[in-house]
Amino acid sequence: MDGALWMYVLLALTTAPPLVPNAALIASAGMLAQSGELDLWLVLAAVAGGALAGDALVYGLGRLAGPRVRGWLQRRPARRSALEWMAERLARHGVPFVIGMRFLPSGRLVGGLTAAVVGFPFRRFLLGSAVAEIVWASYSVGLGYWGGAAFDGAWAGLLVGTVLSLLVAGVAQLVGGRAGARAGRAPLEHAP
């Protein structure tokens, strides 16, 4: 099998499961696309498509385990409060909330499971997830692509792409923590 084909498969497989650190791999793929070694559109399709498949799988697992998960979440006040908060936001904002969840720490996992547990329609969830994953893939691959173009050499572009990814993740964590503190509770991923 061709080396480039393996790279597309690897990109799809590493972006499917949530919480797998793959920013450096995605930035590297963007740099390889910039240098002409990979096709930019196929890189974007592999990254966004893999992430979307993972989101659908998380939603499906949430549906299968829904009653047990709901019972577990409702046992403690903090978890029950987090579930009610998410359910209210999904009901009020729908697809835009699904899109926004993608960009919060642990948002893919928490958002997909919660959407399934509270019965948010799968088609609407998939639409929001698709928009979010396309935006996320474009941003993530673009870091490597433009980093490779701006800096002469793959290592400099890889370094800049990785640092920017970590910086964005840190800012998102900080904002999520402050928003939870203002609301009088811990951010969702830290709820006991």
Automatic annotation (TrEMBL):
InterPro entries referenced in this protein's UniProt entry, alphabetically: DedA_domain, VTT_dom
Domain VTT: 20-145
Origin: domain of life: Bacteria
TM segment ranges: 43-66, 125-147, 153-175
Record bears the keyword Cell membrane: yes
Annotated coiled-coil segments of the chain: none
GO cellular component: plasma membrane
Family statement drawn from the similarity comment of this UniProt entry: Belongs to the DedA family.
Record-given protein name: DedA family protein
